[in-house]
Write a structure and sequence with these properties.
mainly alpha, 19 helices
Length: 469
């Protein structure tokens, strides 16, 4: 049985295998890490402020600027919220321009409270729609001598930075299902999607070239495989992060706590994730749970539609969900094991271990689940194929097909006996009639190719004469 499972994995089209495995291997673990990072933006006391920082970081990167990752995540007193092209910045997204600018003044004397490493006043980044008013307020502050070392009102333009979004847009980014939140998640998830798609592209191109020795065809296959992987990964990432914004989900996930597990198991999970603390590992595990559910939903969603349309049975749908769920669970386990094993080799080893472990663990677990489920129920397609075989035998006898004609029929059956047609057959009220609709035209085409045997009375007499002789 193990050999059969391995053969099924081996014989699966490699572009399909890579696309599915890479999506599962990357999104489950990378999505978990992102969940930990994004938790502050979506659960903290000022989520719109944090998400504005992150959004402005992403736009600056797209504009080619050098952005220091998560500069303000340590909440250091007086520290910068963002660092762009070496410039330390305070990001303030308050209700009004006066409050946004006023947020950088502190103490009893209401004096300028933030200075960069060179001792110069740190500029404040405000919502896009507050920029002009914030400029004027800053000019007034300079005029009143409130900003140390600056007396020229024209310097206000260097002390106020226009953010890339308004405050209302930042608030909308923290909400479920809004245009701005979807836009944010697509931008944020594109990095993970491109990573998964890029790895899929390289592997697919290499494998295709080894099989075809055709560079153009190999690149064509790789582009399709990489694109499918990237789009599927992005779709799952956006789905998981949107779920992060639902209050009921946040409440449920608060019950996920690895500290109740035995210490050695909690330590193993933390090591597998590459988490710096138990708290971070806990958030990552929450992200893994949600990402896994979204992966299962995306994978089995088309099957649900087929069941509703009557193209597959309820039993088949349940089996597909069970196999998909097992694959995801196996992927998570494989990623944790791979991450823990290769964690000593640094970030690169951790990434390779988690990704490869997720790929292999997911595919093996899915095949095992399929094998076990197959002992309890036959796939719909297997039941349909029994009808197809019976109809082929009937037509072969009816038209007295020769061995060569049967071989010809078998060679052409794949053109009509497709997964889609088997689903259509399952939904049809007369499955045998539908199978005949698919197969008999092929049989007639083959029979029509038979050579015509022409003879007359003389040929028969000559034949009888030869026998008599």
């Amino acid at each position: 049985e193990t050999n059969e499972i391995c053969l099924k994995i081996k014989n699966k089209p490699y572009d399909e295998f890579i696309s599915e495995a890479m999506t599962a291997g990357i999104i489950i673990m990378e999505g978990a890490e992102k969940w930990d990072i994004n938790n502050r933006m979506l659960v903290g006391s000022q989520p719109h402020g944090y998400i504005a920082e992150h959004y402005n970081d992403m736009v600056d990167k797209l504009q080619g600027k050098k952005v220091e990752e998560y500069a303000g995540s340590d909440n250091a007193p007086g520290g910068a919220d963002r660092i762009v092209n070496g410039q330390e910045i305070q990001t303030k997204y308050c209700a009004t321009a006066g409050k946004s600018v006023g947020a950088i003044y502190r103490g009893e004397n209401n004096s300028y409270g933030y200075f960069d490493k060179n001792g110069k006043p740190m500029p404040v980044e405000v919502p896009k729609d507050q920029y002009e008013q914030a400029l004027q307020i800053t000019r007034d502050k300079i005029k009143a001598g409130k900003i140390p070392g600056i007396t020229d009102e024209s310097e206000a333009k260097n002390l106020v930075i226009k953010g890339h979004c308004t405050r209302d847009q930042a608030i909308a980014m923290t909400k479920f299902g809004t245009f701005d939140s979807l836009k944010f998640d697509v931008m944020d998830g594109s990095v993970i999607a491109l990573k998964a798609g890029g790895i899929s592209f390289v592997i697919s191109a290499t494998m295709a070239y080894l099989n075809t020795k055709n560079p153009k065809e190999s690149l064509r296959i790789a582009v399709i495989s990489g694109g499918k992987t990237a789009l599927k990964t992005l779709f799952i990432y956006v789905g998981a992060q949107q779920v992060h914004r639902i209050g009921a989900v946040k409440t449920l996930l608060n019950n996920v706590d690895i500290t109740v597990l035995p210490k050695n198991m909690a330590a193993f999970i933390s090591k597998g994730y590459g988490a710096k603390s138990i708290s971070a590992a806990n958030k990552m595990l929450q992200g893994t749970i949600v990402s896994s559910i979204v992966v299962i939903a995306v994978t089995t969603g088309p099957d649900l539609l087929k069941m509703v349309r009557g193209r597959i049975s309820q039993a088949q749908f349940i089996k597909n969900v069970a196999v998909a769920s097992s694959g995801v669970v196996g992927g998570v386990a494989g990623s944790l094991v791979g991450g823990a094993l290769l964690a000593p080799f640094g970030p690169v080893g951790l990434f390779i271990g988690k990704t490869a472990g997720g790929m292999v663990g997911g595919m093996v677990a899915a095949q095992l689940a399929n094998k076990v489920a197959g002992k309890f129920m036959k796939d719909d397609k297997d039941v349909m194929m029994l009808i197809v075989r019976a109809q082929i035998e009937y037509l072969a006898r009816l038209f007295m097909l020769t061995s060569d004609e049967v071989a010809n029929l078998n060679d052409n059956l794949s053109k009509v006996i497709t997964s889609e047609n088997l689903e259509r057959m399952f939904a049809h009220e007369d499955r045998r009639a539908f199978s005949n609709f698919l197969i008999q035209p092929l049989v007639i085409t083959i029979v029509k190719q038979r050579p015509v045997f022409v003879y007359d009375e003389k040929d028969v007499i000559d034949a009888c004469a030869e026998i008599a002789a």
